[in-house]
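Give me structure tokens for this 295-residue protein.
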Amino acid sequence: MSLKPLNKYGFTAYCQKRYVVYDYDNKSITILKYFNHALGHLLDLFSNDSNEKNDWNKDIWYDILNLHYDNTTLERLYEKYQNKYALSKFMASNPRILGRLSEFNKNKDYKNQFKPRNFCIIGFSNVINPNTGKLIKPLTPFVKPSRHAVFSDFVDYNDDSRQKLNGKQYWKLFWDAFLEYLNHPESKFDGGIGILQRKHVRITSIVHIGKESNRLDESELFGLDDSSYEIYHDDSRIDEKFRKIAPKILELKPKDVKKFRISKQTLWNVKEKIKNQQIKKISNRIKICLIQLVC
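Here you go.
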């Protein structure tokens, strides 16, 4: 946590994209502005899923500041958060998610089945699934209130077996997330407390990174798998990959490349260059987009 004076009583505390601007006067804290980076994807810890919106992220910052100024203790905060869980809400539009949740449709009429674009609840876990060797990622249809999800059946997003599990020990407590948030190291500045010095950045190389930008929301919740992104270290690797998939690109239609904002004319030009063995004349941006689409 870093504190930087703003005026006689004002300070800003920040860590990467996480910051809060506040006044501190005679042990009284008034938050003026804050940012909920790394917490914004979590559901309200105290909500009963009513229409009323609680500013719970602001309460988190009050707890952090009160802890910094010794107005509270970790023990008190643990009592506050010990029965809260880190949960996220996500719209199920990915075939992999829908396939996992199809287990909840057995012996149910269509009205009560889980359908595409319905919401689901994703949890976080510190438990390894012995069948996959990966962390268990609890996944279950959305319920109200959302905190009741930890007492319901769920499936492991990372397990192809679709076996249902049950038990709140598989769900990560918010307290663990809070400690990670509190102790996350500052990587853009040198120092710990006080006015920090910005680190200097020296560019040593430039690489092309693809794939993950197409599903950032999902990557944040489910993590990156082996197919989530690929780093292209040099132009020759891009060309090598592109040549392997060239036959598939020749079969593409304008509607297939529309989401990458590749026009019908551009696609036609690419196909002509492939046929004439002029792949090097195709821009790397177009190559990477088509690689992402076909692979």
